[in-house]
Design goal:
Leucine-rich Repeat Variant; 2 domains; 13 helices; about 300 residues; two-stranded parallel ribbon
Length: about 300
């Protein structure tokens, strides 16, 4: 049984963070990480009150390690029992990027979007009309739009920033659109079209994503969340691939599972951080991708 975390012990350990003996520091760092989130507030208070750069850097590393461990545990749990709930997966990843963000504000907005879209639906609407109803809420009422000049900034890939700024890149906008549709029980899925993430409306809900012939037969039309949710056909995908000089691959036309979509999403963010040469973030993201890929087999 875990013993309660002692504030006195945390402060005593923090006092040793400037120790020059690597073995002492390794022990202190490991013990603080074992204490988990309970140690973060005191670590942050110490960070703001000390002038020593080395100790500040060590505190940053420990806080990050604690928070990242929490994200890995939550993502593992999501893979195991909640991968159908894409919104939860997005919230976990937002926690990774913005651990201090007020999630209540984000959740309140998301609940409002879902409710407003649900009010616009009824059993008599065609599939196209259903998507139009969702689009009206996301792009008309909420004012969601694509960011142009700062598209490579990683913050635009995360749900929290998308909700607070109402601007995003193809992936963040597509993931939100997809999560809202799934919460409304609409058969909409992601399509892994490289960095230009799109969605597909199918005839029925899907449980098996391994038979490409059956998946192709399920396709009704495609959706471009980055362009106000407009609908289009397979021909536009072929034209895009030809113009971008990308060889055709069947995955660019087929519905994908939430885990496969999440893998593609994290690869997109990984590429953004690689361009910024952020070693911390790229190492983390590779670890999270490996976690997801081990389940997508």
């Amino acid at each position: 049984m875990n013993q309660p975390v002692s504030e006195t012990e945390i402060k005593a350990l923090i006092a040793l963070l400037d120790d020059t003996d690597p073995e002492v520091f390794e022990h202190v760092s490991r013990r603080l990480q074992e204490m988990g989130p309970a140690a973060i507030d005191i670590l942050e208070d110490t960070y703001t009150s000390i002038p020593d750069h080395l100790t500040q850097e060590r505190i940053e590393n420990i806080i990050h390690a604690i928070q990242f461990t929490g994200v890995k545990q939550e993502l593992s749990q999501w893979i195991e029992d909640a991968a159908d709930d894409l919104m939860r997966g997005l919230i976990i990843m937002n926690r990774y990027q913005f651990p201090l963000m007020d999630e209540d504000v984000v959740m309140h907005t998301l609940q409002g979007l879902r409710k407003d879209a649900w009010l616009g639906l009824n059993v008599y609407l065609s599939p196209l009309e259903q998507i139009d109803a969702v689009n009206q809420v996301l792009y008309g009422q909420f004012g969601l739009k694509g960011v142009r000049d700062e598209g490579d900034e990683p913050r635009h890939s995360f749900l929290g920033n998308l909700i607070t700024s109402q601007k995003g890149n193809p992936f963040s906008m597509g993931m939100l659109h997809l999560a809202i549709c799934q919460q409304l029980d609409l058969p909409v899925y992601g399509v892994c079209l490289r960095s230009h993430f799109i969605l597909v409306r199918t005839h029925d809900h899907l449980a098996d994503f391994h038979d490409p012939v059956q998946l192709k037969e399920q396709v009704l039309f495609y959706i471009n969340p980055y362009n106000r949710g407009i609908t289009f056909s397979e021909r536009e995908i072929r034209n895009y691939l030809k113009k971008a000089e990308i060889p055709e691959d069947e995955q660019y036309f087929l519905p994908a599972s939430n885990i496969a979509v999440m893998i593609e999403y994290l690869y997109f963010i990984l590429e953004q951080y690689e361009r910024k040469a952020s070693e911390w973030k790229t190492d983390d993201l590779r670890e999270l991708i490996a976690l997801l890929e081990s389940a997508d087999k």
